[in-house]
Input
Amino acid sequence: MMASLLTLVSAALVVIGAFFALVASIGLLRLPDVYTRMHAASKAGTMGSGLLLIALAIHAGDTGTMSRALAGVVFFLLTAPISAHLLAKAAYSVGYRLDAISVRDEMAENVTND
Amino acid sequence: MSLFLINVLLALAWAAVTGSFTFLNLAFGFVLATGALSLIREQVGSVGYFSRARRVISLMLLFVYELILSAWKVAVLVLTPRMDLKPGIFAYPLKLDRDFEITLLANLITLTPGTLSVDVSDDRRFLYVHAIDCSDPDSIRRDIAEGFERKIMEAFH
Output
């Protein structure tokens, strides 16, 4: 009973995680510029891979796999925002401007790029 | 902080006594050690430790909740047939001044709905945030100030 419940939960998590990974890649295709694309990659991507790892932790059941999968989730949460932030910062400083539909850019008023 | 170390040491002692260093047993030992410390909180002066732990935990829960919400919002946005985007970058005036707190705030902002931190100004007075819907930056500024920034101040000041 308990085992089949755990299997169902981890199966559901795999499906939801795969859905968010799919959404992240559709977002990469559809969104207009690098900054809006980072939104899709950093949020839906983190969510998708995090859920897949949690599903693995529940399904595996032994401590070694479980703790490594959970450590993976923690490192995803720690690193995804930093890499998104660095990519956006690097894109801005090499001169990728925001897409034409953008409504404001207060960074351009205050930051001078060399 | 030293109380946290004592807590971890007690958890290790529990694992040593029970002879099993599995993740679950360590976690259980940590909970037991927290209970033991809370019994003698008046004597060892750990009252502040518990209220701080509660605030750190509430910050973590807020973080997970916002992450789920933001992934969901990105999903809805990406899957609507006609995307109505008003993206833009706005400046957020920082009240926090320590590096570690600014880093934490920037990370939290990146994982919350519709916002992505791009850069910190050189004098550390502004955080530049890219928002996917930047039609009303004042309300986003207010949300950050009353949500994460206040929670970080409560947890670490």
